[in-house]
Specification:
globular; 283 residues; 5 helices; 10-stranded antiparallel sheet
Length: 283
Amino acid sequence: MPFDQSLVDKPSAPSVHSYTWRDVALYALGIGARKDELDYLYEGKGPKVYPSFGVVPGFSSMFDLLAKSGGDLAMVVHGSQRVRVHRQFKPNDTLSTVTKIRGIYDMRKFAVMLLDSETKSADGTVACESTASIFFRGEGGFGGTTVPKEEKIVEMPRGSDAREPDFRVEETTSPELALLYRLSGDVNPLHADPEFATRVGFPQGPILHGLCTYGHMVRHAAKGALNGDASRLTGFDASFKKPVWPGDTFITEGWNVGEGKIALQMKVKERDEVVLGGWATYS
């Protein structure tokens, strides 16, 4: 079925997402928060909100556009995610998100859809802006243009500039992690149903949500560079390079590259492979 190009650049209806401290704590647990991060887990501390929570209110409008696009949802994987934070999230609020498809691009073996979202708080102020790239495996070759290159905000130290990371955070995940993270809204059966995962090309079992891995990266950046103060993070971006399974051990390495910028990469220890590459900015 061909993609519906008429959807490009048309804003979705506002998607309203009301949440309380319970949702905030559930999200924090879903991205691996431990008891030493009590400020993000206990209502007596607010709780504080990890800024990567900004991906949650956009689930509904993004999935609605994906469903209308004409692509096969069974073949969808997350390619990358960028978030710009304009203000800290409150422990309870009502957010409104509008999403637009920027474009649907042809990469021959797969198609890529770029979706831009703007999320506003109940008082009308912009809380965050985000861009997601979504891959439709096996659905390229329709004659479209290729994905435009994004501006590189942060460069990884390479070549003559290569050096050891400034911090390294290692964390083993739970085999049940995907079942926990999906309770924050991303209920794709790829992350829960072994039979479904096998049918769409993952016989090892359900894979972990890319945005769960992404949330771990954001937590680790705060731990490694900002003494755990995630409120200082103003933006983060990551490309998903390899699938991850619940129970894998993450190793996040970070390089402070000046002017409030951190280059990041995450590896899976058991397979010694890079699964995520990205960056964060902070104030």
